[in-house]
Write a structure and sequence with these properties.
The structure is a homotetramer.
Chain A: E1 2-5, H1 11-23, E2 27-32, E3 37-42, H2 50-54, E4 60-64, E5 84-86, E6 89-91, E7 95-101, H3 108-121, E8 125-127, H4 145-158, E9 162-165, H5 172-178, E10 181-184, H6 192-201, E11 205-208, H7 215-226, E12 233-237, H8 255-262, E13 267-269, H9 271-275, H10 281-291, E14 295-299, H11 317-333, E15 337-338
Parallel strand pairs in A: 7-8, 7-14, 7-15, 8-9, 9-10, 10-11, 11-12, 12-13, 13-14
Antiparallel strand pairs in A: 1-3, 1-4, 2-3, 5-6
Helix pairs in contact in A: 3-4, 3-11, 6-7, 10-11
């Protein structure tokens, strides 16, 4: 931590800042420059509240952190990339993993037909929402446990592991009994109790980025899960809020190489939520793979014009079939392959 | 709802759009202009998923909603401003209500001394966090029930109602036994289960705006609470995420007159979180009152340089004492007064 | 400037960083902490490109500036607030100055009738655009010199100084012959040649904040003008771009106390562009004054429903008449007064 | 255009809205629904100011445009993609075009050595700034005409066409005498006079997206150039301003497929400015090609740690050499190739 003194500070103010730092059991390192005086804070641990506390001391201009807020997800702490298996699918390895399926589980038929088609085209994991967060209380909120059972049935038939969202700590036990990966959605990215409970469950967790969450905060959120002893975390970029309205969100692919540099955790991309427009999904899926994503999560629906949620961002099965060979080609161009072959179930 | 057809659409595409709308039990109203063809969707209720579903139909350029997503919080539904009492304090009336207190309850002494000073200066309600959401798992997370007891003690001594944050549905019963107002924080603004449970509790709820939540979405979040039969909701603006880094958030005072126009709910402002800088709190408190806020929520701490959280945005008691007469003056200038007199406890 | 070394840097990398700094004629101050090694850069002047150059040196994690980028507009350089006279109106003094008038000068009658009404209600300065920047080339672009003549006529009749926008260096001489204050609009906030030419003109300059310009960059833009020997700069907040769509821009009143702290320059607020909605202008005008603004710039039009530009954000004369006594009341509440009396011309 | 009436409007208000529309020579199409009344505006041309004017009429809730603001850049107006030649390089064709070179022209040696290396690796066009826009007046502003001469020398030697930025209408004639493509930078994206003058010059123009410019506004800016009879416009995405600070800007690759859908103009991507970090440039270059970009603009410098501007976002020649074969591979994967072979000059 670095304290920058105001121009024109007094000696007494300087001494009080140093005393406050020493009171916290730390040492100081003073650097008096031509135009600026800086106090380096030396020692560990630095109490997290110290930065904010020092901001109110007279004579202080500003206080900067120079160490990262998160530890367990950092590359420095764990240089090798994290890999883990979900049934027989490896997440974070050389092979790109495609997750596909409907936004919501609406019926057995809708889910099974999508699952078969997704599997045939080369998806490795099936997605589908049984508990849905909705902006308005009058929208479809999912089938609940009935939806989980349908997902399990689709897994039994196709062999694909499943991922589904958990909305609250209440549902964790129930959802964990069915799912292979717990999905924590954008709105819950900083729901810290849910993160800790998901950490305790031991089930692999996909942590989606919140709509206004900086990358450093996202990694700090992952720390909540990992601090409970659960190392199997995978991150998923899904778009941030900006002034642009041509897309529903601004799908921030820059996050992919940034995460690769800062963290050892696998990073996926969700172009369906990222853009909110079905016609942008193919181009942005390819871009995500080229940027280095370890996988994709794509919404596919047999009849998007009759979907109970997010039809406008779902691919038809036909469009998903067209996309997968392109995904293979781009993965190949960056030295990777797609985990699953395209073989009819 | 309005469907705008692509330039060059075919008659067959148009017919399929109309059929999809009629299938939902609605009628259409066609308007063929020189450059654009528009289909108005007539009838109620319009299924919430229809907008997204129509976006994937061939020939459709875009689909616009023309009705609001929320109903219970709207001015049109309830033209008169909502007023309610919290013990003997009226929220949403002509008088401006000042809520003050520490970010976190740290000890009985810290809380009681702040409460006494706040009361003496003219605050009506005491704030203090017992359960704290923190970006990193290594930061201070509050005293829990011990903190709630301290708040209750401060209420008993000063007579001030109390407000404290509830983080999860698990804690709702516990927190409701102590608090007069449940605070739902920015990170939980779209935690829909928590909203519904808070609605069921019957306790008045302060709903803070999420960091990337549009005003329309904020009112839809309020609908979750109100749809459970709880009309006593007060909104609180606390800053949004933008590119500006001179302030911690961009405290969006425009939300105050916008909410007044769209909704009958009382609207408060929290300049402490809104700006994140103690030295901006006085000016922005006055601005909020001038903009029409029904109240303020201000962080006050006896020793901000030793606070366990958010010291950098807390006023000292001395600065709070200086601010309150200015708040009174500005409230007077806009035809209001401050609910509580400045009288020593 | 502070260089933060990567964890695990080598001694050789450290030496190369130090060598690069010394090559620029500067000294270094090394601080080796438990977890982080930091190099302070000591000496002046630090070449502006050094920060970016050091970011590419092996072993460097990041480089932080600790001194401000701007000098002439800073409080530290010039502690007393800047005041200057425009004809007999003092900008930056104790009195709040109200600038009012139409978005565009459309005709002599429209401008003169607005000017008379604005003067009568207590505005001190008349605004009106003769050269208009427009998003589409097919929109009204102003009357040009004819518009300037109409403004001069209005000044002759009412005695009010005038302010009008200059769009390009080409028009500077022409506009300067007529106007009392040159307005540089949001889109030109970082049009550096225009800033320098405005600086050379010697005419007082209002510099509006760009839609995505951070406060530090805004002050750096002011430096371009001041570095040409023109100290008479006044800043004007007019809204930034964010995700919120209920307002046309997010009018950032936080900028007012931030500028007061960082700079000695006067700061105005333009609630008409800031919000883009006529019905938000009154509340946000009062809020701006309460936040400490030195003045307001408000769009007023005799017939907003027939305006050639920005009718939707213009007050009618009637609404402006209602607003001015409220502005006086709030100004009084914060210890200021409005420069001009409300007296019929 | 669509006018949405307020709930509870009066018949008289409705009639006044209709009268205002008819006064503009247009017809109306009334749709009275269960919950909402909508007036469609029929006829052409709709005066651009009408939307804003109607917003102030009593009884109006809001006014929505349903036609696009721009015409010449739209796909609907010109369905085939625009292609044009710059010397012997085709822009907008099947082949991906790579523009490379230093941020600023600093010396003949620096520019020539970069040009040779760029050419050898397979770049088709040389970039280099002779006139530089800088946030602070104390930064390096370019060599001016001397820089243009160096670029021309590099073109003579390597055969590569050149692109360089024009900052003001004053410099247009001078810059046009040397350059093959005029670059209009992000800060000038809405400098409408410069756009028109560039349009008149007849020289091909690269229009970079402004930091807070929506895609629709960007296309409207292109209209300014094209309306002067210059069809040879190429767009370049270079990052927008958001709350994320891990990158200098948020490089918005979504703009690439959005532009492809809305417009026939070629679209390039500049990952150097887009991300501001040299280590993110390779991944985001590949992502841009996968997203469908027609070309890249990449900053390359022989000694980025001694660059006079933007060293931190420049690739070394070695890193550029490593990147180009990857660009070829990804271009191949999406059915394209890179315009120039990698052959030593």
């Amino acid at each position: 931590m670095i304290v920058i003194m105001k121009i024109g500070y007094t000696q007494e103010e300087l001494e009080r800042v140093i005393a406050r730092i020493e009171e916290a059991g730390l040492r100081t390192h003073l650097s008096v420059g031509e135009s600026t005086t800086i106090i380096g804070v030396v020692g560990v641990p630095i109490p997290p509240e110290l930065q904010s506390d020092l901001e109110v001391v007279d004579g202080v201009d500003s206080v900067l952190r120079v160490t990262k807020r998160y530890k367990l997800p950092s590359r420095e702490f764990h240089p090798e990339p994290t890999k883990f298996k979900v049934r027989d699918v490896t997440i974070g390895g050389d092979e790109v993993v495609v997750i596909a399926g409907p936004c919501s589980v609406e019926s057995a038929e809708q889910t099974l037909s999508t699952a078969r088609a997704a599997r045939a085209a080369g998806a490795s994991i099936l997605r589908g929402g049984a508990f849905k967060p909705r902006t308005s209380p009058y929208e479809f909120r999912g089938l609940g446990e009935e939806g989980l059972k349908i997902l399990a049935e689709a897994r039994a038939e196709t062999g694909m592991p499943i991922i589904t969202e958990v909305l609250t700590p209440y549902d964790l036990d129930l959802v964990s009994r069915y799912t292979d990966i717990l999905q924590i959605g954008a709105r819950n990215c900083q729901n810290f109790l849910l993160l800790e409970e998901a950490g305790k469950s031991g089930v692999p967790v996909m942590l989606k980025r919140g709509m206004s969450v900086q990358i450093e905060e996202w990694l700090s959120a992952a720390e909540y899960i990992m601090a409970q002893g659960n190392p199997n975390v995978l991150l998923c970029e899904r778009g941030i809020r900006t002034f642009e309205t041509a897309t529903r969100n601004t799908f921030d692919l820059n996050a992919i190489p940034v995460i690769k540099r800062l963290s050892h955790l696998p990073i996926f991309a969700d172009p369906s939520h990222g853009t909110g427009k079905w016609y942008l999904v193919p181009a942005m899926s390819l871009a995500a793979i080229a940027a280095g994503a370890d996988g994709l999560m794509i919404e596919v629906h047999p009849n998007p014009d009759h979907a109970k949620s997010d039809g406008g961002q779902s691919l038809t099965i036909e469009n998903f079939n067209k996309l997968m060979p392109q995904v293979r080609a781009v993965a190949g161009a960056v030295g990777r392959s797609v985990a699953a072959e395209a073989v009819p179930v």
